[in-house]
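Narrative summary of target 7.
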Amino acid sequence: MLNDHNKKMLDDPNQKTYAARSVVHHYTQLKRLQPAEQTILDLFHDQWSKLKMLDIGVGGGRTAQHFSRLVVDYVGIDYCADMIAACQRGFVTSSPAAVFEVCDARDMSQFDDNSFDFILFSFNGIDAISHADRLKVFQEVCRVGKAGAYFYFSSHNLQGMERELNWRNQVSVNPIRTYVNLVMLALLRFRNRALSLSQINAAAHLIIQDESHNFRLKQYYIRPQAQLHQLAADFSQIKVYSWKTGLEITSDTELVSNTDMWLYYLCMIK
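Modeled conformation, tokenized:
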């Protein structure tokens, strides 16, 4: 008989991929913060010691290494039980006060309302689910976060994918690099053959089977302006950061033209 967790994985291919032993091992080897994560670490330098933090999609503990020792309370969650087991093994001595729990961000009912001051959802974890479920996550974040709490998450940029799908952008002065780029482009187009370029260009958001973990993940891509619109009802003081440079994107012109493959969004719960 299948338990509820295994039944969910059968219904959710992305979750099944994240539970694969090789994928779990991959995430346990990651150590470094991305530039936009380092930006937020520095930005809240004087506040961490007062904050209760929820780290959603903690994976193998990459972000826990940097945040768990700074905050007054740290809880890391993931919907993959093997990821949480890896965290529990890895942090038992280095951060014994850190708590790691199996939890799906779409239903965080194990946590009370108004529990956290800062909520992180890094590495585009929110993109592994459907549009409707994404909105559920925003609702749950608002419920478990205190009024005025911060939410910081990353999401794939559809404008970046548009750039990747243009073969001219895959041509390099290095012929070997050009060959590799064009092969990957061909695979990307084949995996998403139901999507025409005109559909992609016209969409505000799409589910795309990208190259992550050998094209095993279907992920949500959204235009930055559409993401701001999604957040506007429940969040305020929304800021956008380049994942590559860690710098804030301050103008609408820059936002519309940005082709980073993903962006970070910092916002405050109303």
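The chain is about 40% helix and 25% strand.
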